[in-house]
Hints:
mainly alpha, 4 helices, 106 residues
Amino acid sequence: xxxxxxxxxxxxxxxxxxxxxxxxxxxxxxxxxxxxxxxxxxxxxxxxxxxxxxxxxxxxxxxxxxxxxxxxxxxxxxxxxxxxxxxxxxxxxxxxxxxxxxxxxx
Length: 106
């Protein structure tokens, strides 16, 4: 679900079901009922938990973990299973691997 930003055009080619809504015309797609309000609301909640001052890029994972812990407190087992599945599909790489890939121009 997204607005019509061109950068999202590749999502369908990657196998995702991608619905769009053109916010300059309407906020709910009249054909599909698609809208972006839920994700915008969720993102606003995430941002509210990140300090305005003294925040650090290295703590972003912690800020998100804290948000998930409080938002989905009764569903932590599901959240854990979700992230374990993501970790299996997209194994994390070390910082050295990312630096080497960046140096190689990948």
